[in-house]
Design brief:
Elements: E1 5-8, E2 17-20, E3 30-32, H1 48-51, E4 56-65, H2 72-89, E5 93-98, H3 101-111, E6 116-118, H4 127-131, E7 136-139, H5 141-145, H6 147-150, E8 161-163, H7 172-183, H8 187-202
Parallel strand pairs: 1-2, 2-3, 3-4, 4-5, 5-6, 6-7, 7-8
This protein binds zinc ion.
Zinc ion (ZN) binds at residues 7, 9, 20, 61, 166-167.
């Protein structure tokens, strides 16, 4: 079975991963975006050529981080510009979110017209509210190691789930195994659902 990786900073050797790139990347599918930490030093025009490339399957990581980076005002302006682009080009969005849930919930209401993926989802307290939206949850090694996450994993519908390795050296296969073990979901079933979700969101 194929192990799809929805967000990785390691160059994947196939088209089963979304490589987090800074520019056009021809050897695999990729995402490109201005990270909230860089919202005051990077410009949208730097990523525009890459966004239009056929291998660019998502805009990201974009988002809001209250603990790091420039002011929320600057981060929000950059995020909004990128959400407009995502809507215009009909691309999914990969979110980096740290302590900015109120802002996020109001954006979901007004701006979401494509799949939105919360990458490295690790905020179990937000789950009830997030389940009322249409966001997709991408789980990484840290998500599955958090004991508070383990008890809520089965509440995330299988059709709203993705897996990722992010910037870790972890093996994506291990993320599948850990999820399967933690939720008592047969591994074959996990593979099938993630494949379906990945292809529906990012295309083949
Ligand atoms: Zn990342």
């Amino acid at each position: 079975m194929k192990c799809y990786d929805a967000h990785t900073h390691t160059i994947p050797d196939n088209h089963m991963g979304i490589y987090q790139s800074d520019a056009v990347y021809t050897a695999s599918l990729f995402s490109v975006g201005v990270h909230p930490w860089q919202a005051d030093v990077k410009t949208l025009s730097e990523i525009i050529p890459a966004i239009h490339h056929q291998n660019c399957r998502a805009i990201g990581e974009v988002g809001l981080d209250r603990l790091r980076g420039p002011s929320m005002e600057i981060q929000l302006a950059m995020l909004l510009a990128q959400l407009n682009l995502a809507n215009e080009l009909q691309k999914p969005v990969i979110f980096h979110l740290v302590r900015a849930w109120d802002e996020f919930y109001s954006l979901v209401k007004s701006q979401q017209h494509t799949p939105w993926i919360i990458h490295g989802f690790n905020s179990p307290k937000q789950l009830p509210r997030l389940l009322q939206t249409k966001v997709i949850f991408s789980l990484g090694p840290a998500s599955l190691q958090n004991p508070h996450m383990q008890s809520i994993l089965t509440q995330i519908p299988l059709n709203r789930l993705l897996f990722e390795t992010d910037d870790t050296a972890s093996d994506i296969n291990q993320v599948y195994l850990d999820y399967s073990l933690a939720t008592s979901t047969p591994l074959e079933e996990v593979y099938a659902h993630i494949e379906q979700n990945f292809l529906a969101i990012f295309g083949a």
